[in-house]
Structure to design on (351 residues):
């Protein structure tokens, strides 16, 4: 098996050099399962166990396998990490995929289209280090000559200037080539989007076989049930790799304020002209953002979403700081008790 097909490159060779002479093997994660994962190594596909310290291992990771057993010794340094806040009330990071070059943000033109959701995915991509590509799936529902299709294209482009936008239809024979051009030969991409936008169908079309099960969407809102239940890496005949991921019901950010500002760079440029440096763009005199909204140069809901995402990130960072402080206090308390116990034991022994 030629691992270069799966993304093995010069930086990984350098990272692996300390393990090379010990009989260790390199492998890439194809799928993660309970207490283990499916990997691809030079000898082929293997099922390996994961120690507790490496349970955050994700699809796309490169691993070091022990020479005498199918056991993972280490995870090689990641180039990129796609992560979100854990869903629900649980606080922490959930790693979705690792070492991806491109994040394909898929949204359907049959009722799923939502610019605000696209902006959230763009922030995740910015934080991860991967390049985003917006994929407008089910393009066959809108005639290319209609104004609705052009409005959808304009709205997608407004989410982040310069981000490539690709139309996709399972019935369009040119769509796979257009997507390949957007991703690039030899790169690794990950699919992100709601359930029912056609991600599994896209994988099947690119593979040229029905590898994944698909289901119809609901008539009322064009949303689907979770057909894909786990993340999996595929080597495509087009010459690149694709990670299929289940649809995300929640896209809570695990990102920095800088990542949010980079996605909303157009607002930052306009805000540079505000009279006050600390302008909150909420009615202050001389606010250039308010002027841009009034003139129709920026949608008000884009500005409101920027405030929402920035507040969400600030709250997460505050909670993370408080949680870290409490954890340090608990560790210090345990250490203090241990030291006192050792001192008491030492006194009794001397007496």
């Amino acid at each position: 098996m030629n691992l270069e097909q799966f993304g093995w490159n010069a930086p990984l060779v350098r990272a692996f050099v300390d393990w090379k002479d010990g009989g260790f093997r390199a492998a890439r994660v194809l799928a993660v399962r309970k207490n283990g994962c499916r990997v691809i190594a030079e000898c082929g596909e293997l099922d390996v166990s994961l120690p507790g310290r490496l349970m955050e291992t994700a699809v796309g990771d490169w691993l070091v396998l022990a020479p005498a057993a199918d056991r993972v010794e280490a995870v090689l340094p990641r180039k990129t990490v796609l992560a979100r806040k854990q869903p629900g009330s649980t606080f922490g990071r959930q790693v979705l995929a690792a070492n991806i070059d491109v994040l394909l943000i898929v949204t359907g033109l049959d009722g799923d289209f939502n610019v605000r959701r696209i902006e959230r995915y763009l922030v995740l991509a910015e934080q991860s280090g991967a390049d985003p590509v917006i994929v407008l799936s089910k393009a066959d529902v809108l005639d290319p000559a209609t104004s609705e299709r052009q409005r959808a294209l304009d709205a997608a482009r407004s989410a982040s200037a310069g981000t490539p936008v690709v139309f996709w239809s399972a019935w369009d024979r040119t769509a796979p080539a257009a997507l390949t051009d957007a991703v690039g030969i030899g790169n690794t991409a990950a699919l992100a989007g709601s359930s029912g936008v056609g991600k599994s169908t896209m994988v099947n079309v690119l593979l040229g076989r029905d590898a994944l099960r698909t289901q119809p969407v609901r008539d009322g809102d064009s949303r689907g049930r979770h057909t894909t239940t786990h993340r999996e890496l595929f080597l495509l005949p087009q010459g690149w790799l694709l990670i299929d991921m289940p649809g995300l019901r929640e896209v809570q950010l695990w990102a920095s304020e800088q990542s949010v500002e980079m996605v909303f760079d157009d607002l930052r440029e306009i805000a540079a002209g505000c009279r006050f440096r600390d302008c909150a763009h909420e009615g202050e005199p001389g606010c250039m953002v308010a002027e841009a909204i009034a003139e129709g140069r920026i949608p008000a809901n884009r500005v409101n979403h920027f405030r929402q995402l920035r507040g969400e990130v600030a709250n997460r960072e505050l909670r993370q700081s408080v949680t870290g402080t409490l954890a340090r206090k608990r560790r210090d308390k345990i250490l203090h008790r241990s030291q006192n116990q050792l001192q008491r034991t030492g006194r009794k022994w001397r007496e």
Residues 217-226 have pLDDT under 50 and may be disordered.
